[in-house]
Amino acid sequence: MNASPITSWEGVAAYFTFANNPTAISIILTLSILATLGIIVASVVHENKTYIDYK
Amino acid sequence: MEPTAPTIEQLQALIETTTTINMEVFYWWCTAFMVIIHVGFLAYEMGASRLKNTLASGVKNILAFAFIIPTFFFFGWWIYLAMYNGFTPDFAAGAGGLPWSTSMGPNMSDHASGIFWGAFVLFAATTASVFSGAVIERIRMSSFLVLAIILGSVVWILGASWGWHPDGWLTTEWGFHDFGAAGCVHMVAGFFALGVTMNLGARIGRFAEDGTPVDIKGHNMPMTVIGLMLIIVGFFGFLGGCMIYNGSGEWTTIFGTPVTLSAVSFNTLMAASGGIIGAYFITRQPFWMMSGALVGVVSCAPGLDLYYPPLAFLIALIASMIAPLTDRFLTKRFKLDDAVGAFAVHGMGGFIGLVALGIFSGFPNIAEGTPNISFSGQLMSAVVMALLGFVPGFGLSYVMAKMGMLRVPPKAEVAGLDLVEVPLEAYPESNPSSKNNTLTPTSAPTEPTSTVTA
């Protein structure tokens, strides 16, 4: 997979992976937001399980 | 062949490159030093917890740091750039802070965004750590994380955009001056913690049946005191990050007034000293002495760029006497259990600081048409910061408490959160709540070993 937005370092500006590919950026950003939220939700589930013995 | 002398253009380009790299290097190391603040908070809060909650307090602190970073990337930086008018965003100004902007990643034409974002992330994480200490030993981890994200990636940065930004409305309309973020970082975090603590309630055993406060001692006071000293070390990175490195001219505050590192050096050290001495005079004990150092710096933070150093010493001295008395008053009068005195240190310390600079006011602001620093401007801005912290902290935690999501079950609290939540033991050879020693949960809550506060 060619993720580079540049073919030369001459006069380069944004050069991070997929900088010229809004679709890829959207997918990666969405996945990272979902991972952040998902792990908080998972911690709620984890707590509910661990608290069963203590209710 | 003899070497030729560099041209003016070459020398100019060299100076510009060196200036840019110096700027990046400066904030890089400020950010690194600010990480030490979190080393300090980690040691401080683990030491202030009882043996049975040591690791749970550590996990909470580490996760606050971790969750603030991506959420500040997703929306925190945009809020700072876009919300300086109040609640109406400037979408054009905020465009560079959107998480898909070309400035929000490696970019050879932008040497500033990442390094400033990094410093601001560490300011944000500091607010979460301030809040964290107040609620140890009984808050649910997931609720804490949600509240920490709201505080660290939304609330404080909104305050920063209003009053810690060259175009912020508090700066341009009221002449608000807060060099070291006593308002947007310390007051907002302290008042947020106060609001949450009111809904969270006290730890089991914190008050006797007749309402007398019972002192719940942390398991490792030396670690707590060393942690507090590490926070002071980290403050040098924090305060360095409060300055703009212009390269070609003088340093400025984050909102554009002239400043020097020399000025901040004078006053930071005098303030830390005054804080330690004042707290020693009132309490005679090292926890409040080192907390007093924090109060000292926080209470002088708005004017660290302006004060005559002995004045900073005196302000810190007085503020650090008021802080432990404030904590004692809130505990006895309102039965609030702020486990580490976060409100007294940061909320009250920041309030005293903003008002003190109002008393010693009169300095001109730099932007055209902006009012000078005044008592009324400082006082009104302090009220704004207090409300900005308290209202969301109280409101969100109230809803969470009503949903039964805010606090761990009483039996889990009594058994100890390390045993309940953490698959590791802090001191496996000596911990009474060790999984090796305690295979079944405690059947009924028991009172902690404690002493009545004098």
TrEMBL record, chain A:
Highest rank taxon of the organism: Bacteria
Is the Transmembrane helix keyword given for this protein? yes
UniProtKB keywords: Membrane, Transmembrane, Transmembrane helix
List where the protein spans the membrane: 24-45
| Name assigned to this protein | Uncharacterized protein
List the taxonomic lineage.
Bacteria, Pseudomonadati, Pseudomonadota, Gammaproteobacteria, Oceanospirillales
Automatic annotation (TrEMBL), chain B:
The Ammonium transporter AmtB-like domain sits at 26-426
Q: Enumerate the subcellular locations listed in this protein's record, separating them with semicolons.
A: Membrane
Which residue spans traverse the membrane? 26-47, 59-80, 114-136, 143-164, 179-202, 223-247, 259-282, 287-304, 310-330, 342-367, 379-401
Q: Which InterPro entries match?
A: Ammonium/urea_transptr, NH4_transpt_AmtB-like_dom
Q: Does the keyword Membrane apply?
A: yes
Keywords (alphabetical) are:
Ammonia transport, Membrane, Transmembrane, Transmembrane helix, Transport
The principal localisation class reads membrane
Which portions of the chain have biased composition (kind: Low complexity)? 438-454
What membrane topology was assigned to this protein in its record? Multi-pass membrane protein
Specify where the region named Disordered lies, as residue ranges: 427-454
SUPFAM superfamilies recorded for this chain? Answer: Ammonium transporter
Answer yes or no on keyword Transcription.
no
- Report the leader peptide range: none
Which family does the entry's similarity section mention?
Belongs to the ammonia transporter channel (TC 1.A.11.2) family.
What protein am I looking at? Ammonium transporter
Q: Which organism is it from?
A: Marinomonas vulgaris
